[in-house]
Amino acid sequence: MEIPKIDESKLPAVMKLIDDAARLMEDTDCCFDETAVEARKKLDTYQKQLVEITGRENLDIKSFMEYWSYTDLETAATKALLPAPVKTGLSDEQISEMIYQFFDGEFENESDMDYLLEVLEAETGLEDFSDYIFYPDNVGLNPDAAPDEIIAKVLSDRK
Q1: What is the 3-state secondary structure (H, E, C) of the chain?
Q2: What contacts 112, CB < 8 A, 6 or more positions away?
Q3: How much is the pTM?
């Protein structure tokens, strides 16, 4: 599967929005503090701008709170600009080929890998899909399970 390309010209604006929103959420508890009215208004503005730039209605600016604890800013912004994965009814063979990509190390960057994980999650209905790849023992397999074992488990567990 080829990862969609993003509009690189939008990347700086999305990076700024995500970083500004994350810092606001770090400095002010605008998500839960009822007295933080101005901060919530500002966060709502960031949310609207994010949707406007990315075109993704269901993208929540709050999901980038403390993004720095799990990724870098450019990767977070790139993920925001990628289209939301939807189930298209991939065949077992297509799903298998996509899973093999994790073992072949065919990713140019972290956002491509994350996007493929989201696609596979959508296709299989397995909310914990990354466990199959990175923590197979969490889904009943040997921690050193072979790719073929993981694929068989994914195909048998999918919803």
Answers
A1: CCCCCCCHHHHHHHHHHHHHHHHHHHHCCCCCCCCCHHHHHHHHHHHHHHHHHHCCCCCCHHHHCCHHHCCCHHHHHHHHHCCCCCCCCCCHHHHHHHHHHHHHCCCCCHHHHHHHHHHHHHHHCCCCHHHHHHCHHHHCCCCCCCHHHHHHHHHHHCC
A2: 3
A3: 0.79
Cα(46)–Cα(52) distance, integer angstroms: 10
pLDDT in tens, 15-29: 999 999 999 998 887
- Amino acid (1-letter code) at residue 48: K
Which residue from 75, 100, 2, 13 is spatially nearest to 50, judged by alpha carbons? 13
Is-contact 115 3, C-beta < 8 A? Answer: yes
